[in-house]
Amino acid sequence: MPYTAELKKLIKIVEKTRPARVERKKKGQEFPTIPLDEREKILKKYHPDFKSGSRRKIRVGPNKGYAISHEVVDILEARSRVDPNKIDLSRVDYQTDILIIGGGGAGAAAALLAQQHGAKVLLATKLRLGDANTMMAEGGIQAATKRGKDSPYYHYLDVMGGGHFVNDPKLVKTLVLEAPKVMGWLEDLGAMFSKLPDGTLKTMHGGGTSRKRMHYAGDITGAEIMRTLRDEVKNRPTDIKVLEFSTAIELILTDQGQCAGALFYNLETEEYFVVKAKATVLATGGSGRLHIQDFMTTNHYGATGDGLVLGYRAGVKLKFLHTVQYHPTGAVFPEQAEGLLITEKFRGAGANLVNVDAEQFVYEREPRDVEAAAIIRECSPDVGKGVPTPTGKFGVWLDSPMIDMLRGPGTVRSEFPGKDILFRRYDIDISQEPMLVHPTLHYQNGGLEINERCETSLPGLFAAGEVSGGVHGENRLMGNSLLDVTTFGRIAGLNATLYAKRKSLKGKLTLDHVRKYHRALARAGVKTDRIAPMILPDYSNPEVRKKQLTTQYQGTLR
Amino acid sequence: MVAQRKGKKRTEQTGKQSEGKKNLVPIFIMGQKYMVPDSLTIQKAMEYAGYQLVRGCGCRGGICGACGTVFRMPDSYRVEVGLACQTVVKPNMYLAQIPFFPANKAIYDIEKLSPTGEVVAKLYPEVFKCVGCNVCTKSCPMDIDVMEYVARAIRGDVAGVAELSFDCVMCGLCAARCPAEEAQYNFAILCRRLYGKYLAPRAKHLAERIREIEENRFEQSLQTLMDADEKTLKELYKQREIEPIMAEEDWTPEDNSFV
After folding, report:
1. What is the architecture, at CATH level 2, of domain B21-97?
2. Active site includes A513?
3. Please, which of A234, A460, A465, A468 could form a disulfide with A259 given CB 3.0 to 4.6 Å?
4. Is A70 a catalytic residue?
5. Phi, then psi, of A544 in degrees rounded to 5
């Protein structure tokens, strides 16, 4: 759908102010940034996290009393998909050294490192290997690789500032020190990063970065990393067994309190099966498909927070789940692309955000939460300068044509090939016309508590990537999630292997923790027919559903 | 105590459609007719029709390659393609998804390969079977000139294959329709990895930085930050010098004590 006549008229206004804005950009005259204390105010007033009534306290489990989004509490205050008494744990279907749950960036990285250190690996994933948010990350991966102008010191400061200074310092230190090594590892695996002719990695700014340290592969950085890791996992079939369309239902423990694998469900044959492992890595990713506060999401179809449920029932604490990341720029036009991620790299390359009157209203590289809040403010009745969409929503312009004016014709096409083709399908040339954007649900800032070795409080259970919490504090910066999954995926794979060599499983397999959790729900007065993990979101048509007279739904699944 | 929420409705995806005006059009999913709103993508239209997708649905954002779809319009013999999550329905289209195709995937140790056409030819000998029909290019939902990169592979131009295939989402539609039974998308990633590892110039600054880290050069400065109280940390954060957006590659900060 090309822009409507009304929107084309509004684009004319953007075109009018564009040359002056480009000139200012060239001279380095940026829109003023929001000071730290002001940030606080705008977040409190406009960020969805602070909307009254948007959180409630969890009534059971290790974080009892912790107030987080209703949608997450809903899956935590839910019953298991199975009656533990029906599961025969004496029949083990697969036995392995390392079980990895999740086939995204963290899972694949963990599998490779575990295999490299001599472990037999079973990687089980809900959809296909590589079907994950990693694949969808566009903009880049941060690492302080540029000597003379950047170092882990500044990366550390940026991460802490973005996360409101509450991040776990040890995790942050690990992240920034491992970052260049991860880049070296990926280069060695043959990932095609964008480079200058002499081999220097191209880098850009992201929101909240003090130095240009976002490395990228066109505008499909995550896809490039994921398809490379996936290819490598598939090249080691003797040691890494991959089970697709196999989704984890519960962790399995020993009666001595070790993690000993997991119970799975085959989404195609609908069988349950038991995997016994000496160590387990949870790498199940995030939860955008819970549609917190009914926001649209940039996330993968399978991002339903399953790992949070599994870990929490087994006693692992949650951290930093009280903040949710809304990506400042999701598409709001055309309707078919609503919610779709428009990478921050556009702003890193110099594109302004402007309102309906084509005025700048925010510096375009604030940390994501601040940036998102500023856009919501602009579209709110308080300011009332949002651009109305044909579906009755509001957005602001992301002025991508500036990039060709700043960096030469053809830059948008060469640096943003993914978005270029996507919008061309809708007859929109983003090197000539701006994009209409609004914040969209993007990232689970928090998750299961881990230490810098990716250990959880449950012996034998490791976690890495979006399912874990701490490294990003209350707000992740752009380019640090691809870094997170690769860094901590590798660490989890290595440490799980070391653990498996050191410790043996003792005692009988059990799902007692699930029984206990069910009892705790009853004691807390939680009466619910909700079932978790959710596995897939419910996009069924209510009209069709009414006529499915003999169909049974287990939660959202048919 | 527990905040009460009103009956929630998913604003996302198909649920949203019930709100606005709907202009229904017929589509044929594997031959069966369904009436669906004309603004939906094929993926959302299938959900609207009553499907719960397990196969054939991934990122829903046009990059994972899970939802390759073939379709035909009734007035044409031509088979068209698209990603179901990106392609808006057309009235009377006949469609089927091809969520998986069992294409040949060579197993190799990237460390032991050289970046040559011979290596590609050895791992994927079928590459030479190309008959030049161009169906692969016509089948690519990402508008990649697939046949051209097949030709480059035949010529042994690994870098050419890597560059031309860069946008590939590995949906497999090219392989599904290839009369020569090639696995274009699989030898394309082999070439991209060979290019990235062996042919693209290495990042020297990266190797040097890794060496510095291994020599523990940043331990002390990081320790200072880890030990700092919040007030000091905030002060250091505020003071940090920002590299200008239009700065050239050789820009250096005024304070270089921590770089």
Report:
1. Roll (3.10)
2. no
3. A460
4. no
5. -70, -40
